[in-house]
Amino acid sequence: MSAHVSTRQYVQIWVALAVLLFLGAAMSQFPLAKPTIVVGVLTLSTIKAALVVLYYMHLKFDHRWLAIVAAFPLVIIALAVGIVLSASLVRF
């Protein structure tokens, strides 16, 4: 694994981010249930955040313990989203 990302890779990641952004915006136009749209947009946003963190913030090339420290807030967010979603499921 190289410690340097080429310009071509940066452009490819930028294009992927743009496509994911477009898909997230287009999902609101699909005739889907709102929870499906929310989960889809959250999934796309998580993928975009991972790409930014791994490549533009160079976390992919740093020590593993730094990745663990950076992932800790994601665990907290996942727990919070799980609590919110479980509360809405109990109401049905």
Shape: flat
Termini distance?
Answer: 49 Å
Percent helix, as a range, is: over 70%
Total beta-strand segments: 0
Cα-atom Rg, whole angstroms? 16 Å
| Sheet having the most strands | none
Q: What is the number of helical segments per DSSP (H or I, 4+ residues)?
A: 3
Helix-strand pattern = HHH
Whole-number count of domains: 2
Residue ranges: pLDDT <50 for 5 or more in a row?
none
The mean pLDDT is: 82
Give the amount of beta strand, in percent: under 5%
**Computed structural class:** mainly alpha
Describe this structure in words.
There is one protein chain. The protein is flat, with a radius of gyration of 16 Å. The chain has helices at 7-27, 34-56, 64-90. With 92 residues, the chain is mostly helical. The protein is built from three helices and no strands. The protein has two domains: 1-61; 63-92. The relative contact order is 0.09. Helix 1 (7-27) packs antiparallel against helix 2 (34-56). The N and C termini lie far apart (49 Å).
